[in-house]
Design brief:
242 residues, mainly beta, Immunoglobulin-like, 7-stranded mixed sheet, 19 strands
């Protein structure tokens, strides 16, 4: 990674309304794994939906194309990927294996969201609306030209109370960042757990509190973090007036 190199934690209600969302569980349902990667040459991967409740569930599974535009996560129907079964009845304390198939191969990595809905059953009480409970997991499909990597530029813009990390992924693969920290002298860190997905070509701003030990006269800051591509570590100039 070069020149500094970290959300979209709440994809949330962008997916067909405002159904409650959880990464791995929804009122008695759980899914594993919580992320799918289809390697170049592979045609399918599998995930398992498990019921931890006693009542049967009506379950629907879809795959949506996932792109990023400035600060937005965009989700659209797609025929690139199919699932089987796409709808099924799940008995209490049972599990169902779902196969996720790549239908065609692109040149570069493509990103998707697998959406698993536990649909309402029975009659709703008068004057109420029952929404599906929803699980959402990311799916990344490797392209023909595998072997690329995330390649991020970033800068830090300062404000009086916050620092804004401006991120741009110039690479060919996504990056998932799970932690960011501002490192001070003597090893002190102002650390933040985050969930930042930055897809190829995408830009993101991440606002974090300014560390109390960072003076307004400082001209740069040391930023470290953790990602699925390895450790992040860069000293970055501070841009803008405090």
């Amino acid at each position: 990674m070069r020149r500094g190199r970290a959300t979209g934690a709440a994809l949330a209600a962008l997916i067909f309304g405002c159904a409650p969302i959880c990464a791995a569980c929804a009122q008695g349902l759980a899914v594993a794994p919580v992320r799918l990667d289809v390697a170049r040459g592979a045609r399918a991967e599998v995930l398992t939906v498990t019921s931890h409740g006693d009542e049967p569930a009506d379950v629907q599974v879809r795959v949506l194309r996932w792109t990023q535009d400035d600060s937005d996560d965009l989700l659209q129907p797609t025929d690139d990927v199919s699932v089987s079964p796409s709808r099924f009845a799940l008995a209490g304390r049972a599990e169902q294996v779902i196969r996720v198939y790549r239908r065609n191969e692109a040149d570069s990595e493509r990103s998707y969201r697998v959406v698993i809905d536990q649909l309402p059953t029975g009659e709703a009480a008068a004057g109420t609306v029952r929404l599906p409970l929803r699980l959402v997991i990311p799916l990344f499909v490797e392209g023909r030209n595998a072997g690329g990597s995330a390649d991020l530029d970033w800068q830090v813009r300062r404000g009086r109370d916050v620092l804004t990390l401006r991120l741009h992924n110039r690479g060919e693969r996504h990056l998932r960042i799970s932690r960011l920290a501002f490192a001070g002298e003597g090893g002190a860190q102002d650390s933040h757990d985050v969930l930042v997905y930055l897809l190829p070509g995408a830009r993101r701003d991440v606002r974090l509190p300014r560390p109390s030990w960072l003076t307004y006269a400082a001209s740069s800051v040391h930023v470290v973090g953790d990602s699925d591509a390895g450790a992040l570590d860069a000293r970055l100039d501070l841009v803008g007036d405090p």
